[in-house]
């Protein structure tokens, strides 16, 4: 009888509690329709703003995709794109969001959306955030907030998370991870450090923080700056002779030439690789806005070349146009960091075709459905903005990683091994420089019964992993493999 009463009370408790849990999320933030998508949304989506500074009217925009698996148990993962100044809708539209986007067939029409079988929401709750203020749909009523840097961005994002979990308390007990790519190699560890300091200080609500992931991430001036030359040599992009000459003349210091002879050899390296697609050396460069058909009519390309860099994604990876994006061998240094549009003196991201996302996110019906600010407040969505003045003021990330991993937080440092923007050689070198004991020696890891890359596991829950044939934005190039390593990392499984 006692057992029956216990079971009955337990069931009754859950019945009574369930409506509270399911209604905790703000219903006003619920996204009820996705323009361009005609099917049934496989899980709940929420979108809106969190005010991180009342006095300034500083508001950060989020888009939250509830897990399609077990929302109450699956991890909550914050996703941050880099730049600095790039919207995390880049990840949502082009990488691991719940939909694949197909360009509109006619001008003025919306892109067509289909379900993405490799969405990260298959196994987790994913929180996409536009950060800092001035990026994407995030904004401030005080324009002084558009001058910011690493430390302020980390502090504001931590404030956002504390307030966001107050709005969505049913997810507070879920394991929480922070992830991102490119310049988010700075955002992620600085934010993780703020989160840990908050936990140790007893800040409420108490976040169930477990670890973080960084993909092709900016990390350290020396390691990032020295990454290109060994990458170019290992990939067969420069000759043995040039590699030996530049190594001898520069004494292993490739990011800051100390003499004329070194500078001349480095210029030759730059010349040899300048015609390649910086984001993925396997992909063709599209000069200007030429289409594949136009290009093929001018140059006879073998079919094997046209297949380079192909993926399982049902829709093609964005065209990457010819042109220098981040300057080669130019690591992020202390001080003002130019945004991507500033590098190209335009309002677009150099070398990138972002038309699908731009058309979709600037459509009035889409903006209304996604609960964005009025056009009088945020006039336009851009993939990357030049509205902010951003300073790198946190220094090298190596000590951040060392402090976080020494406290037991899990870290996955992953790299698309054909990215020339932030080459894997730099990430491999700095993870090794931490001096941790190797637990699992360099070995292949598999996905779909194929070698998908290589991995090395260190003590302190640190893992370095490459994704074979992937470029700068790994899930865009290798969606199936990305979902595989993502799922294993979140579940603490071996690679």
Gross morphology? globular
Q: Tell me the count of domains.
A: 2
Task: Estimate the strand proportion.
Answer: 15-25%
Describe the sheet with the most strands.
Answer: 11 strands, mixed
- Estimate the helix proportion, in percent: 25-40%
Structural class: alpha/beta
**Computed Rg:** 23 Å
CATH topology of the largest domain: Rossmann fold
**CATH homologous superfamily (4th level) name of the largest domain:** Alpha/Beta hydrolase fold, catalytic domain
Mean pLDDT: 87
Number of H/I helices: 17
Number of strands: 16
* CATH architecture grouping of the largest domain: 3-Layer(aba) Sandwich
Top CATH class of the largest domain: Alpha Beta
Low-pLDDT windows of residues: 1-23, 289-309
Taking the alpha carbons of the first and last residues, their distance comes to 48 Å
Protein name: Carboxypeptidase
Function: Probable carboxypeptidase.
GO cellular component, one term: extracellular region
EC number: 3.4.16.-
Provide a brief overview of the structure.
This protein has 495 residues and is an alpha/beta fold.
């Amino acid at each position: 009888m006692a057992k029956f009463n216990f079971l009955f009370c337990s069931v009754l408790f859950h019945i009574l509690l369930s409506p509270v849990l399911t209604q905790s999320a703000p219903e006003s933030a619920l996204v009820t329709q996705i323009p361009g998508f005609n099917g049934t949304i496989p899980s709940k989506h929420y979108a809106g703003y969190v005010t991180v500074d009342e006095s300034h009217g500083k508001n950060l925009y989020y888009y939250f995709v509830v897990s399609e698996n077990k929302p109450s148990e699956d991890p909550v993962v914050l996703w941050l794109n880099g730049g600095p100044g790039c919207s995390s809708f880049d990840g949502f539209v082009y990488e691991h969001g719940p939909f694949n986007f197909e360009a509109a067939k006619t001008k003025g029409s919306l892109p067509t959306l289909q379900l993405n079988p490799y969405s990260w929401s298959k196994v987790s709750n994913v929180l996409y955030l536009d950060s800092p203020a001035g990026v994407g749909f995030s904004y401030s009523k005080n324009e002084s907030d558009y001058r910011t840097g690493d430390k302020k961005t980390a502090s504001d994002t931590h404030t956002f998370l504390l307030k966001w979990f107050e709005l969505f308390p049913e997810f507070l007990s879920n394991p929480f991870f922070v992830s991102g790519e490119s310049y988010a190699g700075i955002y992620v560890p600085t934010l993780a450090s703020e989160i840990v300091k908050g936990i140790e200080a007893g800040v409420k609500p108490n976040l169930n923080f477990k670890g973080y992931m960084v993909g092709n991430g900016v990390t350290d001036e020396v390691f990032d700056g020295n990454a290109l030359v060994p990458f170019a040599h290992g990939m067969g992009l420069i000759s043995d002779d040039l590699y030996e000459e530049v190594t001898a003349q520069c004494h292993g210091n490739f990011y800051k030439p100390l003499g004329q002879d070194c500078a001349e050899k480095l210029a030759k390296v730059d010349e040899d690789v300048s015609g390649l697609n910086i984001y993925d050396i396997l992909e063709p460069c599209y000069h200007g806005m030429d289409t594949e058909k136009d290009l093929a009519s001018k140059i006879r390309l073998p079919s094997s070349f046209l297949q380079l860099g192909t993926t399982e994604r049902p829709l093609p990876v964005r065209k990457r146009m010819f042109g220098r994006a981040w300057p080669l061998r130019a690591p992020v240094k202390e001080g003002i960091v130019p945004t991507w549009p500033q590098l190209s003196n335009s309002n677009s991201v150099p070398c990138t075709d972002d038309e699908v996302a731009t058309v979709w996110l600037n459509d009035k019906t889409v903006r209304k459905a996604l609960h964005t600010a009025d056009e009088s407040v945020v006039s336009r969505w851009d993939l990357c903005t030049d509205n902010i003045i951003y300073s790198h003021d946190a220094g090298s990330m190596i000590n951040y990683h060392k402090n976080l991993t020494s406290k037991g937080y899990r870290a996955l440092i992953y790299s698309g091994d054909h990215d020339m923007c932030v080459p894997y050689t730099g990430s491999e070198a700095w993870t090794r420089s931490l001096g941790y004991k190797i637990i699992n020696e360099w070995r292949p890891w598999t996905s779909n019964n194929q070698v998908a890359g290589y991995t090395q596991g260190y003590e302190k829950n640190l893992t370095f992993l490459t994704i074979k044939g992937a470029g700068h934005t790994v899930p865009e190039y290798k969606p199936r493999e990305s979902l595989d390593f993502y799922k294993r990392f979140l579940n603490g499984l071996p690679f």
